[in-house]
């Protein structure tokens, strides 16, 4: 799983411990805003959210942004309009030309949901 070059991922805080790899269950907080600052969605209301990295059961940019993170880390992900297609399907109020900004905070890495996935992706 390699992020597209147009996806801008910036570490705001480096965590510690092992890095997130495909097959992990990463528990995180996330916030998605438009470039103007309007919140599109936010995990703070429901508490930390588990994401199966590589499971394709959430927005792809969340999975890509989690790769390589460590517990306690925080990242900013700037998503250009050409990569927001999944978000626009779910949140129809997002215009086609919208740039989205995600903030991810990794809370914990729990058990692997697919311990063989990383080896299969090599």
Describe what you observe in this structure.
The chain is mostly beta strands and 122 residues long. It has a single domain, classed as Chitinase A, domain 3. It has three helices and six strands, in the order ββββαβαβα. The chain has helices at residues 60-66, 85-90, 117-120; strands at 8-13, 24-34, 39-42, 49-52, 74-79, 100-112. Strands 1, 2, 3, 4, 5 and 6 form a six-stranded antiparallel sheet that branches. β2 and β3 (39-42) form a beta hairpin. The longest helix is centred in the middle third of the chain and has 7 residues, at 60-66. The model has no long low-confidence stretch (mean pLDDT 89).
**Global mean pLDDT:** 89
Mind telling me which CATH architecture this is? Roll
Order of helices and strands: EEEEHEHEH
What's the number of extended β-strand segments?
6
Counting helices, strands and paired strands, the structural category is mainly beta
Instruction: List low-confidence stretches.
Output: none
Main sheet, how many strands, which sense, barrel?
6 strands, antiparallel
State the distance separating the first and last CA atoms: 9 Å
Number of domains: 1
Helical content (DSSP H or I, runs of 4+): 10-25%
Instruction: Write the CATH fold name.
Output: Chitinase A, domain 3
In the CATH scheme, the class would be Alpha Beta
What's the gyration radius in Å? Answer: 14 Å
* Count of alpha/pi helices: 3
Beta strand %: 35-45%
What is the general shape? Answer: globular
């Amino acid at each position: 799983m390699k992020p597209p070059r147009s996806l801008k991922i910036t570490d705001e805080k480096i965590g510690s411990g092992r890095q997130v790899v495909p097959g992990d269950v990463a528990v995180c907080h996330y916030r998605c805003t438009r470039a103007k600052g309007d919140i599109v969605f936010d995990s703070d209301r429901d508490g930390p959210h588990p994401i199966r990295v590589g499971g394709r059961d959430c927005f792809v940019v969340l999975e890509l942004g989690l790769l390589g993170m460590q517990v306690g880390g925080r990242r900013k992900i700037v998503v250009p309009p050409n990569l927001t297609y999944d978000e626009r399907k779910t949140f129809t109020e997002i215009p086609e030309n919208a740039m989205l900004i995600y903030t991810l905070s990794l809370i914990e890495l729990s058990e692997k949901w697919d311990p063989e996935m990383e080896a299969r992706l090599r």
